[in-house]
Amino acid sequence: MSNINTKVNICGVEMKNPVTTASGTFGSGREFSEFVDLNKLGAVTVKGVAAEPWKGNNAPRIAEVYGGMLNSVGLQNPGAEYFINNDIPFLRQFDTKIIVNICGHSIEEYCNAAEMLSDSDVDLFELNISCPNVSQGGITFGTVPSMAEKVVSEVKKYCKKPLIVKLTPNVTDITEIARAAVSGGADGLSLINTLLGMKIDIKRRKPVLFNKVGGFSGPAVKPVAVRMVYQVCKAVNVPVIGMGGISNYEDAIEFIMAGATAVAVGTANFSNPFATVEIVEGIEKYMIENGIKDLSEIRGIID
Fold first, then answer.
1. Cβ neighbour number for residue 182 with a 10 Å cutoff
2. Which phi and psi angles does 264 have, rounded to 5°?
3. Is pTM, for the whole model, over 0.90?
4. Which domains does the chain have, with CATH numbers?
5. For residue 2, which phi and psi values (nearest 5 degrees)?
6. pLDDT digits (tens, 9 = 90+) for 228-275
7. Would you name the residues annotated as active-site residues?
8. Between β-strands 68-71 and 213-217, what pairing exists: parallel, antiparallel or unpaired?
C-alpha cells in the first residue's frame, strides 16, 4: 500500500483515509468496535451531542422503507458532560480522529454545547443545523440562509476547533445555504443530512412514525446527495464531507469525483456493520488497480 496516499486534510486536520461515519448511525463507536477495527477509520463522527441530555422523540421512531429507512429519533443523547467523561476516553484508545456533532434547539443551546466541548480532546466540530429552532416556531435553522449564517457565526465564537457545518437537503437551493454557512465562518461543510419523508400504514390508516414524518436516508437518496455535493463544491472553497446513501467504495469514489474531500457512511452501518472498513479497503484497491497515487488526482474531476 506504500505507493498510494489515502490521507486527506479536513480544515487542517489530517485523516489517514477519507472515510468517517455519519452522525447518529454509529453511536460513540462502542457498539461497532465489536465488528470493525476503529483504528482503520479516518475519523469517527459521533451522534449529536447537546449541552444537556435530550430524551428524543416518542416511539415508533424508525421505519424501513423502499431504498432506505425513516427515522425520527430526535437526537436522543446523554449530554456534553457524559460525552466528555465517557465517550472521548473510549475513542482515544484508537488511532482515529474524533468529530463531534453539536445540536441545539436555540442559538443559546448550540453555543452552550460548543463552549462545553471546546476544550475537550476532539479534533473537529460538526454543527447540525437541521435542528428545529424552537424560538422560531420549529423552522429548521438550515433552511433559511440568514438564520444559518447567524447560528454559525454565533457558535464559531466558542469554537477552539475547526467547525464543519452539516447542511440539510430540504431546501430549494443548496448552494445558497452553503454560501451562508461559509459567510458565517464555517471551516468546512458536510452534506447531505436526511430528506424529509413519510410512510403510512394502510391497514391502520395511520402514519408509521409517531411524529408522522422523519428523516429519509439510505441508497435511494444517493443521486440527490451526489448532485448537491457537486453543486456545493463548485460554489464554495472549503472542504466538503459527502454523505447520503454510501454503501460501498464505488459510491464513495463518486462523491470524491464530485468534489468531496472525505465521505461519511451512515445507514449502511445498520445493514452491514463492516461497511466502513470494506469501503476503506475498496478505495485502496481501486487506487491501486487504476494507478491513482493520491486521491487529489480524482477529487472534483467532474466539470
1. 21
2. -120, 135
3. yes
4. 8-56+75-199+217-297 (3.20.20.70)
5. -65, -20
6. 999 999 999 999 999 999 999 999 999 999 999 999 999 999 999 999
7. 131
8. antiparallel
